[in-house]
What does this fold into?
Amino acid sequence: MTRPGHPHPTERRAPGPAEGRGRGAARRAAPGPASGRGSGGRIRAWAELLRVSALFSVPGDALAGAAAAGLRPSRGTAYAVGASLCLYEAGMALNDWADRAEDAVERPHRPLPSGRIAPAAALGAAGLLTAAGLALASRAGRPALTAAAALAGTVWAYDLRLKHTPAAPAVMAAARALDLVLGATATGPGPRRTAVPPPAGRADRTPVTSTPVAGARTVRRVATPAAALAVHTYAVTAVSRHEARGGSTLVPLGALAATSALGAVTALRALRKPDGAAALVPLLPAALYVGTAGTPLLHAALHPSPPLTQRAVGGGIRAMIPLQAALAARAGAVGTAIGVLGLAPLARTLARKVSAT
It folds into this structure.
């Protein structure tokens, strides 16, 4: 998957001392393409390109998928997490490669237009990361590889062709849903060994391998959390389409309504379960989800400026984590939910250093 929306816009700031000393001084003070070319500068540039602070929103997809399927995390889940991380970062690199001409005008500080990373390097990284993601998924079995291939195709189609079309939010929503499905299929059991009637004239009943077919119940259990992630992603992506220029009130309000409804549905479902105190476990991540996503969306709706809209997008990305935790807890995987929720403070801390959008 890739990030929703456009790269982080250049923020306005107060004039510095060099800006009042004429154009020559300003040119000397401004960083040129060669600045930051040391090892530390290269690491910083790649961290910005790959939006490393947003990575914490990825593992919960596979873990929530495993929980939704009623399975404990396994080695296959680890492969799914690795594949998801690689495909997410591939989408990040490909996104900036595809937007390099636009970024040169609107966001010249980004790694590609500033010259800190070559376009060919970004495109090469996208290809290598995609191949690595598919290789990791293949280790979890053919169903997982099929889901990963569909996810990779969605990512590349979004970045190269569909990003600036009305279909963009729906494509991004499909990518997140596929990421959850990847976790469920990678964690699922391998081919079952079942006894079949022996051929005529033979008395033995040798177990043979049959192709596993997901039951209708499993499909329904995975479909519900996948739809929840899709709705949230659609809402955040729709908002992100306005983050460079702002000016939209209705879109953040619609996203606020969607996230509030998701949080309410999760909380009400927990309250209706007759399982005692354990049924209340999803309430905390559901509340954190609404607070993380809802507050910046409300601010963006009241004051639709680019900085507040961009902040709302960042909050929406971080809100993926408590939503994934709530979905896992609702499926009964309390330990998984706690582990996923533990990623939230790490994402928030790193987001202060590297923007997630």
In short: The longest helix spans residues 216-240. The radius of gyration is 23 Å. Residues 5-36, 190-196, 205-214 have pLDDT under 50 and may be disordered. Strands lie at 192-195, 207-210.
